[in-house]
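Here is one chain, start to finish.
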Amino acid sequence: MSFGQGGPYGPPPQGPYGSRDPQGQTPDWAALADASAQRARRRRWMLIGGGVLATAAVAAIVATAVVSANGDGGDRGAGKNSELPVAPDLPSESAEPEPSFSDAEPLPPPDPKDFISTEDKDKLPLGADTLFPGAKLTMGDRDYTKGATNRTTNCAGATQGDLGSILAANTCDQVIRATYTRGGTAVTVGVAVFSTETQALKAKKEARGGLASLSGAGVPTFCRGGAICRKTTNSYGRYVYFTVGGFTSGKDVVKTDKDVYTTGDDVAEFTFLQIRRRGEAQASAAATAPVDE
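Its structure:
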């Protein structure tokens, strides 16, 4: 039996996604892709339009809020200004007098050297026991034993060579000596005292010859009889101090004999410090003394 062209089922059915193959029922993929693209475009345009409307609405709300705030702020500001407290009255000037301060600058502290530059100011006791106290001398890690001491107003008698006449010509008042030993070395230091610093400086400049070494108290004679010894001369204030150092054995001193040089330098430095301390002590006493009104 024949039912006409197309068979018993008629033409292929049409669906929303296109025609189907009556044999394998395969979808039309091209048609499906076109339909999906159309739907995506419609959604995108709908989102863009909605965003523009939302932005415009937010801008309108913000502008309204700003206008409202400016209007209210002016009124509130005026109200606050009108309610500020009145400044209290300043206190009147006190009837009591204000403290006053002297315009005079304080006097500078006394210079210690001024007190050892002239005999008029240098009033502390002076002798071998004040310049060279104790039984030994310590400088750093070196100890020296003190030997004999001597004080004489016959300045020339404590010297050798031309030094005696030079001291006398510059009106030397006295010479104070002390000897220190360490091992086989010995040094005698002598302090010549003058009335003024000017006299002391002149005697130092003219100095020739040297100090006579001082033996005794366990120290044998040294630096006598032509032995070569090391000599130094220096001054501070109205004091000129000399040293003569060498070996107790009578051996001549050469430049490589460091022990002799070290001993002489230590004793000379100690003597300078003792003289300076005299000035410091007297300056300190003068600074703390009550002022006569």
